[in-house]
């Protein structure tokens, strides 16, 4: 048991945490290598995506290459390449200098056409590299960026390549309009500058106290990266099965939600409540962000009744999906398209439920169970203009890299999370035997160093937000944002092994809020749902006493920021 006191101006409340430890068994991990050439290509392709390619080596390919002149470079004899070339020649593809949203079915179809072309490539050079250079200059810039990101993540040829931070590739999605305006002015007047970006809204809004969390560029990058690692549109014919995708959809969003609630508790706010389709959305939101092309992200006032969204979905339809999903949980089984029943009352049940709720291609019946998660994002996002009268653009809720900015994001995910809990609560409890590891005893755990969080300035480059001109050269322009960080600490675990042989152990460490919003102590049973995964690692345990030290920098749930590529 340890005590954390936040030192930030936002966090005045003392939080106390239990640390819970679980021991399990070892699995293996593999490390991969990248190549410098591919990395240079990716950096060049993603540098100033709204401008023509600047590297001579790649620039030559933008007109000296034809995607369909040699189909032997593809594993599918050029089928995917021909398809996108045909669509391009017929001018069916989204033009450049227009907004892109993955939740728009037509936009998604286009970016997947390019992704499928890349996935059919046998080699990086020439196939992926030349096609990337060729299409970068022709199709919508954001369609291209999304396709290239998911290709580098999922194509075996992308292994080892580090993708640049998205907030420097598409800064508009992460930066307030006020700062973008100042960046333009700085460039035009050739004055380098660093501009402090504040969180949107004012202190008149209690939600402002946790804006640092939802508007954090790190959580937005984490969220969009997760959805690129485990895309809802993924089909196994791209090459492999994404194991436990539905379960991880639950886990990733559950962790974001409980972490958000912990931030709320430490800022004297109630835990976030779930959305109800037949009640107003109490919290409004004004994003203060603009698209690079097309205009502003729409706002939503407080207390908006949820209305049908013309041409997208009726609230009634979404409520029917919810009813069918709740019935499945109550019945303990889901049904496939052919009427076949699959039990969900076992350890893979949550995986199926996750696929159903998210609107994954893995859902056993997408027509029947619908797409609760994706549609909730769109419907809630459109409530500023549900009839489409004002020609508004897609909201922050309709992009994975901006969604957490809106407090309604967490209300939607609390709603979804509670459905997962309904299933969890139906499962038989773990037995003592399930939880025990005979002969292994955790004798002591302590934390070296104080658990302290604080805010620090973080800078990122806005060069890629701005257009180039021969007469106006680049100057250094940075946005400066406050981000929450923590002081370093380490765990010490004393474990006694009474076994005769060495064994492999998985250690998992969770941190759980100790008191609720009324300062009442959580019982272990009521508080465990709010536990935050802090670390997970593997160690060998030898017969006798074992002392394990684990540093916070080594945590598997944190990563350093990707280096700037400006
Ligand atoms: Cu998400």
UniProtKB/TrEMBL annotation:
Domain Hemocyanin C-terminal span(s) in chain numbering: 429-564
Residue ranges constituting the Hemocyanin middle domain according to the UniProt record: 165-420
Signal peptide residue numbers: 1-31
Residue ranges of every copy of the Hemocyanin N-terminal domain listed in the record: 38-156
Classification via Pfam families: Hemocyanin_C, Hemocyanin_M, Hemocyanin_N
InterPro entries in UniProt: Di-copper_centre_dom_sf (IPR008922), Hemocyanin/hexamerin (IPR013788), Hemocyanin/hexamerin_mid_dom (IPR000896), Hemocyanin_C (IPR005203), Hemocyanin_C_sf (IPR037020), Hemocyanin_N (IPR005204), Hemocyanin_N_sf (IPR036697), Ig_E-set (IPR014756)
Domain of life: Eukaryota
Keyword entries, A-Z: Signal
Protein name: Uncharacterized protein
Organism name: Meganyctiphanes norvegica (Northern krill)
């Amino acid at each position: 048991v340890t005590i954390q006191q936040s030192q930030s101006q936002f966090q005045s409340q003392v939080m106390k945490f239990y640390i819970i430890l679980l021991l399990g068994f070892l699995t293996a991990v593999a490390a991969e290598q990248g190549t410098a050439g591919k990395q240079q290509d990716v950096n060049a392709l993603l540098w100033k995506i709204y401008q023509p390619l600047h590297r001579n080596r790649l620039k030559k390919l933008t007109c000296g290459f034809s995607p369909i002149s040699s189909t032997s470079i593809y594993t599918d004899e050029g089928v995917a390449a021909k398809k996108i070339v045909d669509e391009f020649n017929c001018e069916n593809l989204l033009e450049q200098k227009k907004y892109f949203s993955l939740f728009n079915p037509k936009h998604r179809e286009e970016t997947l056409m390019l992704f499928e072309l890349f996935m059919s490539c046998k080699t990086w050079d020439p196939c992926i590299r030349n096609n990337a250079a060729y299409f970068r200059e022709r199709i919508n810039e954001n369609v291209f960026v999304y396709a290239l990101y998911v290709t580098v993540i999922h194509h075996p040829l992308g292994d080892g390549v580090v993708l640049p931070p998205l907030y420097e590739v598409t800064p508009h999605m992460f930066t307030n309009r006020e700062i973008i305006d100042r960046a333009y002015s700085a460039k035009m007047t050739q004055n380098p500058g660093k501009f402090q970006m504040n969180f949107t809204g004012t202190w008149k809004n209690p939600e402002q106290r946790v804006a640092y969390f939802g508007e954090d560029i790190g959580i937005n990058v984490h969220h969009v990266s997760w959805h690129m690692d485990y895309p809802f549109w993924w089909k196994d014919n791209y090459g492999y099965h994404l194991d436990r995708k539905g379960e991880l959809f639950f886990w990733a969003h559950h962790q974001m939600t409980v972490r958000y609630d912990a931030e709320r508790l430490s800022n004297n706010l109630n835990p976030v409540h779930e959305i109800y389709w037949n009640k107003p959305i109490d919290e409004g939101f004004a994003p203060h962000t603009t698209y690079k092309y097309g205009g502003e992200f729409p706002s939503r006032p407080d207390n908006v009744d949820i209305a049908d969204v013309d041409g997208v979905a009726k609230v009634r339809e979404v409520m029917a999906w919810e009813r069918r999903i709740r019935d499945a949980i109550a019945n303990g089984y889901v049904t496939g398209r052919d009427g076949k029943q699959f039990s969900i009352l076992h350890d893979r049940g949550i995986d199926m439920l996750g696929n159903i709720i998210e609107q994954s291609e893995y859902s056993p019946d997408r027509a029947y169970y619908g797409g609760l998660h994706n549609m909730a994002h769109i419907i809630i996002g459109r409530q500023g203009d549900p009839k489409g009268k004002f020609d508004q653009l897609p909201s922050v809720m309709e992009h994975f890299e901006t969604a957490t900015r809106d407090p309604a994001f967490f209300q939607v995910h609390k709603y979804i999370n509670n459905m997962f809990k309904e299933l969890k609560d139906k499962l038989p409890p773990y037995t003592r035997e399930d939880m025990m590891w005979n002969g292994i005893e955790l004798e002591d755990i302590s934390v070296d160093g104080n658990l302290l969080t604080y805010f620090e300035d973080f800078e990122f480059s806005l060069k890629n937000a701005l257009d180039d001109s021969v007469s106006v050269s680049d100057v250094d322009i940075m946005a400066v944002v406050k981000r929450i960080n923590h002081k370093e600490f380490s765990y010490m675990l004393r474990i006694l092994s009474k076994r005769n042989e060495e064994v492999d152990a998985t250690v998992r460490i969770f941190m759980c809020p100790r008191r609720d919003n009324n300062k009442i102590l959580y019982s272990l049973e009521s508080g465990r749902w709010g536990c935050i995964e802090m670390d997970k690692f593997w160690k060998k345990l030898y017969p006798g006493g074992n002392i394990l030290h684990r540093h916070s920098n080594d945590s598997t749930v944190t990563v350093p920021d990707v280096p700037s590529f400006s």
